[in-house]
Structure formats: C-alpha cells, structure tokens
Amino acid sequence: MAGIRGIHHVQICIAPNSDAEARRFYCGLLGLREVEKPASLRARGGFWLAVGDRQVHVNSEEGPRSKRAHVAYEVDDLSEWRMRLSASGVSVQDGADIPGYRRFEFRDPFGNRIEFLERV
Prior knowledge:
- By secondary structure, the chain is of the alpha/beta class.
- It has helices at 19-29, 78-87; strands spanning 9-14, 33-35, 47-51, 54-60, 70-74, 93-94, 101-107, 113-119.
- It has 2 helices and 8 strands.
- A 4-stranded mixed β-sheet has the order 1-4-3-2, with helices on one face. Strands 5-8-7-6 form a 4-stranded mixed β-sheet, with helices on one face.
C-alpha cells in the first residue's frame, strides 16, 4: 500500500499585490530565505521560501483565506523569538502543552496562523 512519505511544502495565502509586505515579514522579520519560483508560476504572484529541506509557498489569491490551516516551525530559543515578534507588534499567544515541546502561536499580517515550537 502506498503511504505518505513526508511534507513536500506548505502553502499559505496572501492578498494580491502584497508580496513586498509578505517579504518584509517572512524574509525580514522571520529571516527565511527566498528560493527561486519556477518561471511558469511567477505571473501568479507570491514567492517561495526555504525552511530546512522543505519549502513554504507564499501564494497570492483573491477571496477569503482559511485560518484553520497553519505552518508549524521548530525553532531554537523560543524566548528570543517571542521577544523579537512582540517588539515588532506581533501578538503572541501560548499554545496548549505538547509533551517534549514549548510553543506559541501568532498570525502573520495576512491572517495565517503560525506556530513556533522548541524541543525541551
């Protein structure tokens, strides 16, 4: 039987014409590295990011965006991230305990939920 081998990429949605704001948040504040998006997809807007050996695809879309899906990033120094985000005006909320991890969550400027976890 075929199985799921892992996560290839995660896609999040931003409003049309907000690539610059998204780059400031994801590349600037969060420090993620942008990777080349295939030429065949560039006209759609958005951009792609590298996160370890995976990717986050930031896609420009019209209409309502779901706030149920989210991206969870494993990070080093959760306390430092909390201070950095809070200092930038991002509202951070503690998540429920998960064995072996501390965590919190927040929303990006487009309403996407993001979770940061640190192994304890």
